[in-house]
Amino acid sequence: MQTIVLASSNPGKLKEFNQLLAGVGFAVKPQSDYNVSDADETGLSFVENAILKARNACRATGLPALADDSGIEVDALNGRPGIYSARFAGIGASNASNNEQLLRELENVAEQDRTARYQCVLVYMRHAEDPTPIICQGSWEGRILSAPAGDGGFGYDPLFYVPTHKCAAAELSKDEKGKISHRAAALKLLLAQLTQ
Fold first, then answer.
1. CB 100 within 8 A of CB 168
2. CA distance linking residue 193 with residue 196, whole number of Å
3. Torsions phi, psi for 162 (to 5 deg)
4. Please, which residues bridge with residue 3 across strands?
5. What is the C-alpha separation between 66 and 16, in angstroms, rounded?
6. Furthest-apart CA pair in the chain: how many Å?
7. 57/128 Cα distance (integer angstroms)
8. pLDDT digits over 10-36, tens only?
9. Contacts of the segment 32-36: beta carbons below 8 A, 24+ positions apart
10. N or C: which end of the chain has fewer CB within 10 A?
C-alpha cells in the first residue's frame, strides 16, 4: 500500500478518500498524524490553494500528498464567496453565520438569478517539487434557496438547491451526496489518473 498524506484534518474527507483509494492500493493518512500544520492559503484560486496545501504536506513528510480546496460560487455575486467560502462572514466564521451572510447578500435577488455551483479542486503531488501535479476539478450546479432546508451535510448545504433531486443538499442522504457532489466528480477523475 502506498501512503498518501491528506493535507487536511477533516475526518469526513479522510474517510471519503480512504474508501475510494484503498481499492487501488493507497492508504490515506491525515497530516495531523505527522504533526503537519495547515498551510497558509494565500492563493487567489482553488487550484493555487490546493497546490500550496499539497506542497506543504509533501515538504513536511517526504510523502506524496493529496489536497483539496473547495467552495461555492454564486453568479449574482460574481463568483463570491469562492475561495473565501469558509470565512465569508469573517475569519473563524461558523457555517450558520456564513449562510446568514449569503442570504443577506442575496436578499433582493430573484430566484431565477440565484444560480450557483460548488467547486472542488483536488491536487496530488508525488513530492514537494513535483513539476506536474495531478489536478482534477469537479463542479455541482444548483441555486441558492431563500431559507435553509434540511440538517445533513455541512457548509452551504442547507441553502444549496439541487435541481436534479428537487431538494437542498442538506436533505440528501450521505450516500446520495457522495455520488453526485463536486468532490465525488473530482475524485472520480483523480481515481482514473492514479490507476493509469
1. no
2. 5
3. -105, 105
4. 27
5. 13
6. 53
7. 8
8. 777 888 788 778 788 889 999 999 999
9. 33/5, 34/5, 34/60, 34/61, 34/63, 36/5, 36/7, 36/60, 36/61
10. C
Which residues have CB under 8 Å from 181's CB, separation 6+?
A: 118, 120, 138, 140, 169
Q: What is the pTM of this model?
A: 0.92
Write out the three cell numbers for 24: 487501488
* CA separation for the pair 2, 63 (Å, rounded): 9
Name the E strands within the chain.
Answer: 2-6, 26-30, 65-74, 115-125, 134-144, 160-162, 167-168
How far is it, in rounded angstroms, from Cα 26 to Cα 89?
A: 37
Give CA 33 to chain center in angstroms.
21
pLDDT one-digit tens code per residue, 155-193: 999 999 999 999 999 999 988 998 899 998 999 999 999
Residue 103, amino acid: L
The verdict on whether 69 is a catalytic residue reads yes
Active-site residue, selected from the candidate residues 69, 75, 130, 157: 69
Q: Around Cβ 15, how many Cβ atoms within 10 Å?
A: 11
Contact 41, 50 (CB under 8 A): no
